[in-house]
UniProtKB/TrEMBL annotation:
Domain ATPase AAA-3 residue range list: 8-138
Lineage: Bacteria, Bacillati, Bacillota, Clostridia, Eubacteriales
Pfam families: AAA_3 (PF07726), AAA_lid_2 (PF17863)
Entry coiled-coil feature ranges: none
UniProt-listed SUPFAM superfamilies: P-loop containing nucleoside triphosphate hydrolases
Protein name: MoxR family ATPase
InterPro entries assigned: ATPase_AAA-3 (IPR011703), CbbQ/NirQ/NorQ/GpvN (IPR050764), ChlI/MoxR_AAA_lid (IPR041628), P-loop_NTPase (IPR027417)
Organism in which the protein naturally occurs: Yanshouia hominis
Domain ChlI/MoxR AAA lid: 201-270
Amino acid sequence: MAILADGHILLEDLPGVGKTTLVKTLSIALGCSFRRVQFVPDLMPSDISGMRIYNQKSGDFQLVQGPVMTNLLLADEINRAIPRTQSALLEAMEERQVTIDGESFPLPRPFLVMATQNPVESESTFRLPAAQMDRFLIRLSLGYPSAGEELRMLGLLGDAIPFDTVSPVTDAGQIACLQREAASVHVTEAVGRYIVDLTAATRTHPLLQMGASPRASRALYRASKVWAAMSGRNFVTPDDVQQLVRPVLEHRLMLSGEARFSGRTAAEALDGVLASIEPPPGREELFGGR
């Protein structure tokens, strides 16, 4: 859904559950270019965006492109880099371009950042700023596999991960075409108002110090259109919106000090928001399921 909605993904989970394997496999299946950056405290912004290096033979400065010049960028352990380096991705994620020495360079399309972080460890890590979190369309967690799934994994992947057996099923051009198709899904004024009401309610919720921004409204709007298209419909229903409220909005919210102290969560706040706002009638209700 995030790929077709042209959005970025934050994978937040414990080490060893397959975050990096998922992204690498996905890049092969998509038929897109892929780069991985291991975020560490001494990583500099130019290590991501690129730089100009003086060539002694030619006597001029030559552009060396950074790993951001790709379709799918894996920002591994993104919270281990200093905030200045984390912020180097802001322009790329929002504007799909990078600026090097005052000159802007467009990024390949599609462009998707999949960042990973460990939510447990705090040593030698830096919390992602709110502006950075707001650029991620969704936050996901893989979780541990079931006993049966883990046993099957051992049988299939116990010795090595066979990346060479993965074949592309699409390419960058087809993905761009699918993104345009998903963007044409219809959203009624009532459903649009429902999205706005939900995000606006987070801004005045007593548990929250900071609610969802207008960028979050746009993210929920785009994601709902893709969700509807993936369900075989050319129109968005309130159910589509409700399915995506937590993965799209939860990571953008900031709890108040009192809420954090009392052990409350942003998910609780969103559950309250969903319960307090009456959804509009869906198209099925209006037209008797036709």
